[in-house]
Specification:
By secondary structure, this protein is an alpha+beta fold. The chain has one domain. The protein has three helices and six strands; from the N terminus they run ββαβαββαβ. The mean pLDDT is 88.
Length: 143
């Protein structure tokens, strides 16, 4: 079962509407620093929970039902010309925005021409459907 600790937050530029982002917890602090310092973005509304791949979720749903949000994991193997080596990148995108975001994301990784001038696609994209499980809300006891 694939379970990844995930941070859901909003990302925006000053004066713009916020957009949801899903970032693995192990990368979040570095990602947040980069977004705020290199791109002058604002990161708000941090919430930590889990991302679970759809296949595992359907085979073994959590004991307690929680609200779900459909999120796709995009894996990209590509040739990093600046480092002269193969590289891997992985991002998580909300399903509702995926078609638009996917194309913008892939434009950051252009194919480079061979020495003979031909452009050869050196990318391999994998897509895994999954769910962001919203955190459990502690039950409150009425007095």
């Amino acid at each position: 079962m694939t379970r990844i600790k995930m941070v859901k937050c909003t990302l925006r530029s000053p004066g713009e509407a916020p957009a949801a982002r899903f970032v693995p917890l192990r990368e979040f602090r570095l990602w947040k620093y980069y977004m705020t310092h290199a791109h002058d973005k604002i990161v708000d509304g941090e919430e930590i929970s889990l991302w679970v791949d759809a296949e595992s979720y359907s085979e073994q749903p959590p004991a307690q039902a929680r609200p779900l949000e459909a999120v796709i994991r995009l894996g990209l193997q590509y040739w990093d010309q600046s480092m002269n080596t193969a590289a891997f990148s992985q991002r998580y995108f909300p399903l509702e925005d995926y078609d638009t975001i996917r194309d913008v994301f892939l434009q950051h990784y252009p194919d480079h021409p061979n020495p003979d001038g031909r452009t050869v696609a050196r990318k391999k994209v994998t897509e895994t459907r999954g769910y962001y499980l919203h955190p459990r809300i502690p039950e409150t006891r009425d007095s």
